[in-house]
Specification:
Layout (H helix, E strand, L loop, with lengths): L2 H16 L1 H6 L1 H9 L17 H13 L2 H25 L9 H89 L1
Helix pairs in contact: 1-6, 3-6, 4-6
Amino acid sequence: MQTQKLINKILDELRSKRGPRYHEKHRRVIDKFRERETISRGVGHAEPDDRTFGERLADRVASFGGSWGFILSFMVVLVAWVIVNSFILARSGDAFDPFPYILLNLFLSMLAAVQAPVILMSQNRQAAKDRENAEHDYEVNLKAELEVRLLHEKLDELREQKWAALVEMQQEQIRMLQNLVAELGSGKKDA
């Protein structure tokens, strides 16, 4: 069987098992398989940066907001705020945010109110990229499965051909042995 016939056989089996909807959904993979082209792309596949300004800003804020640099700098600001208001300005009576630190709480609440949705936007974008990568991985795995099935079909075909050739050689050897036995048997009768 030719390779194209094997490919068509595998695709027909795929269609009969999974139905026409499955075939249409995976047309790209099937076309690449039929054309014997690769479907994978490199790990470091550079995609054009088509993010909007807001998306880029959300990614930067999420990147910084989830880093040790942010945590440490935030701790420094909080400690400085407490020291300035509780010790330095409180002695002179000019503390702009005395002990319960209501103004600091307001700023922290505003920061959390702004930072949380921005981080969620960035996570949603990352989830969309992860879904796209998962779909690509699925396509590559499906094509690899089809390629493995093609190899199995080719190996099965080769094995069948070898068995047929082996049976034919064995029959020829049996015929030759029968001729030899017949010749030896006729030689004993003559002697």
